[in-house]
Amino acid sequence: KSVGNGTLTMFRPEMDARYVAEQRLKADLRTAIEQGDLTVVYQPMYRPDGSEMECCEALVRWSHPERGFIGPNIFIPMAESMGLISEITRFVLDRACADCVSWQNEMSVSVNLSIHDLRGGKIVALVADILERYKLDPTRLHLEVTESCFMDEPVVVSATLGRLRASGVTIAIDDFGTGFSSLSYLDSLPIDIVKIDRAFVRDIGTEPRRLKLLSGIVHLSRELDLKIVIEGVETFEQLELVKKHKFADLVQGYIFSPPIPANAIAELSQKTTSGRRLAGRQNRRD
Ligand code: C2E
Ligand code: MG
Ligand code: MG
Ligand code: MG
């Protein structure tokens, strides 16, 4: 009746059950954030020949007390809708910088930002604070943003990223090619690195046209002086092609390592590398 005269709404019990489950999960997420139950794991990015680990990406994890592992693809959008994403960003940034310093090498660490982090200018001060707290060289912090961040508010987002980059931080565009991207972004945004989405590497061994497409994206990015990371390399065949065609500065994917805890990164990096930075600042565009 409250919806209005003559309106008929069907009630389906599973709708209700799903709603209740979601509300419960949201409440649990709030509690997890408050109690510090989230953790961070890291996935290495290697030179294609595997000789050196130069950087690793911080990825947040939530182990629910009853439901077990819940992926960030589920809870990050929830946190965004609940206005809690900035808490997660703050936590991951802090953890990542602390861990990066503890590794005692020159490796960089890469942290994902949400569109919500880029709307206001707060993120600029937050990043500066954390870098100062851990005495971490700004060039060793990379921030990843997705293309979709630029669609809604391109002017504000570019301005914020510009300020971050001016402070010395390296900016990467994540999942490149999956959004409703415009190639002109590559030239107009303050970015240093392109992370090409795994969708572009998946079939390069079997479909010649996919190989050509990847090749095109890579060449364009290089022409614009951007560093290239290829995500989601899973097989030897894919890696061999990436090496043969010199497609990437760095490779991130299960072929080298899944995301692992901070102490495991320390051990791995001792085996392979003293750690050197990906983003040479010498030829960046300002
Ligand atoms: P992303 O930033 O593109 O991160 C890469 C995702 O691909 C990770 O999933 C990683 O585990 C997965 N991956 C890495 N190598 C491979 C591979 O070889 N094959 C396949 N199939 N997958 C691979 P994860 O950790 O589940 O994260 C999913 C997404 O959630 C991330 O995508 C990112 O958008 C978001 N996310 C994760 N952590 C954070 C965070 O701290 N803050 C924010 N704002 N978003 C986060
Ligand atoms: Mg990422
Ligand atoms: Mg990605
Ligand atoms: Mg992704």
Overall, the morphology is: globular
Distance between the termini: 60 Å
Derived from helix and strand composition plus strand pairing, the structural class reads alpha/beta
Unreliable runs, pLDDT <50, ≥5 residues? Answer: 273-286
Which ligands accompany this protein? ligand C2E, magnesium ion
- Beta percentage is 15-25%
The radius of gyration is 20 Å
The main pleated sheet reads as: 9 strands, mixed
Mean pLDDT: 90
- The number of helices is 11
Q: What share of residues is helical?
A: 40-55%
Number of strands: 9
Report the order of strands and helices: HEEEHHEHHEHHEHEHEHEH
Short précis:
The chain has 286 residues and is α/β, with parallel strands linked by helices. 44% of the residues lie in helices and 19% in strands.
Q: What's the layout of helices and strands?
A:
Layout: H1 13-35, E1 39-46, E2 53-64, E3 68-70, H2 72-81, H3 85-102, E4 108-112, H4 115-119, H5 122-134, E5 141-146, H6 149-152, H7 154-166, E6 170-176, H8 185-188, E7 193-196, H9 208-223, E8 227-231, H10 236-244, E9 250-252, H11 262-272
Parallel strand pairs: 2-4, 4-5, 5-6, 6-7, 7-8, 8-9
Antiparallel strand pairs: 1-2, 2-3
Bound molecules: ligand C2E and magnesium ion (3 copies).
Ligand C2E binds at residues 43, 59-60, 71-73, 76, 88, 92, 112-114, 144, 174-175, 198, 232-234, 252-254, 259.
Written description of the protein model:
With 286 residues, this protein is α/β, with parallel strands linked by helices. Helices cover 44% and strands 19% of the residues. It has 11 helices and 9 strands. It has helices at 13-35, 72-81, 85-102, 115-119, 122-134, 149-152, 154-166, 185-188, 208-223, 236-244, 262-272; strands at 39-46, 53-64, 68-70, 108-112, 141-146, 170-176, 193-196, 227-231, 250-252. Strands 1, 2, 3, 4, 5, 6, 7, 8 and 9 form a 9-stranded mixed beta sheet that branches. α3 (85-102) runs parallel beside α5. The protein is globular. Residues 273-286 have low confidence and may be disordered. Bound molecules: ligand C2E and magnesium ion (3 copies). One magnesium ion (MG) is lined by residues 174-175, 195, 231. This is EAL domain-containing protein. Residues 22-273 form the EAL domain.
